[in-house]
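Quick entry between incubations.
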Amino acid sequence: QVQLQQWGAGLLRPSETLSLTCIVSGGSLSDSYWSWIRQPSGKGLEWLGDINHSGNANYNPSLKSRVTISVDTSKNQFSLKLNFVTAADTAVYYCVRNFGEWGQGTLVTVSS
Amino acid sequence: QTVVTQEPSLTVSPGGTVTLTCASSTGPVTSNYYAHWFQQKPGQAPRPLIHSTSNKQSWTPARFSGSLLGGKAALTLSGVQPEDEADYYCLLFSGGAWVFGGGTRVTVL
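Done. Structure below.
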């Protein structure tokens, strides 16, 4: 069974870059789409974007200018970068495979 | 950008039936929207229930079913159990992007 383990910095200052990585075990990056989804405390879910093993990425239009998702097939992992963060980017971030398997979530807080 | 709309809250009695809907601002939801449904309980990650409109995950109880209803995606809970009290989110593919609905809080009372 595919498992996703994610990590990254949990506390950022405004204007910094959020960087998270998700390593996939129990399967390869092929034949799936790998997404990043976030959820501010007490609020709903937001899809940030996804990528396949070939590196073809799709992004949420509202965040497209700040988001980059990349894949490293040699390490069986994919990553999220979100530039110029503000307090509005404070949320739990999840890495997800085909919306079926989810990482444990990472709380990212943006505060000065 | 597409806006996806769900009922903010619904209340159902134990053993009853409730239908949650998911509408798109772009028009009627069809199978091409590949509707997904997720259940989320407090402090937990979302749990996938339904994908591609009506296909259940291996762990999805039989009382949950997905369909298209009146131009919307729908999630029906039949024979509701107390443990079904949760937030439910739909997800649609529209305009080349995935968009979540705002979620429906289901109260079992």
